[in-house]
Amino acid sequence: MKIPTRTQGHFSKSLLLSALILALWRPQGSQAALHIQKIPERPQKNQDLLLSVQGVPDTFQDINWYLGEEAYGGTRLFTYIPELQRPQRDGSAMKQRDIVGFPNGSMLLRRAQPTDSGTYQVAITINPAWTMKAKTEVQVADGWGPSRAWWAVGL
Ligand SMILES: *[C@@H]1O[C@H](CO)[C@@H](O)[C@H](O)[C@H]1NC(C)=O
């Protein structure tokens, strides 16, 4: 089929426009990706676990951490509001856990227990219309697994 030159011209113009829009949008797209890094990846019982969040914007309203498949009041570990003097407010899922939140969005779970295993979710409110989210599965190993043996050999 022969496409008339005029139509072709229109087509490439709109293609160029689409490419331009994509190029302009992309930086925001990559900014929107939050990622949680577990340090260490496979924590053992009584080990400290850092959930380090990458891709947090410089300014935000608050951060909420949840432990569970669903993110709501009942699974909220704590809220972190950077502009408050005491920025961390513990939620109902905190219980006896020893968790400290950091201004960069990360959290440290001290002396992790197998019962702390589960889905950890973070929600960062940038503004009333925009919340960034990420989740990760945490498995806290109980007792003398192979990695504990390696740890002992390493000493
Ligand atoms: C966030 O802060 C904690 C505590 O200072 C630090 O250990 C962690 O590496 C930081 N994470 C990022 C992604 O900057």
From TrEMBL:
Domain Immunoglobulin V-set per the UniProt entry, residue ranges: 46-140
InterPro entries associated with the record: CEA_cell_adhesion, Ig-like_dom_sf, Ig-like_fold, Ig_V-set
Parts forming coiled coils: none
Top-rank taxon: Eukaryota
UniProt entry tagged with the keyword tRNA-binding: no
Gene3D superfamilies named among the record's database cross-references: Immunoglobulins
Pfam family, one: V-set
Keyword entries, A-Z: Glycoprotein, Signal
Annotated signal sequence range: 1-32
Family: Belongs to the immunoglobulin superfamily. CEA family.
Name of the protein this chain belongs to: Immunoglobulin V-set domain-containing protein
Organism of origin: Propithecus coquereli (Coquerel's sifaka)
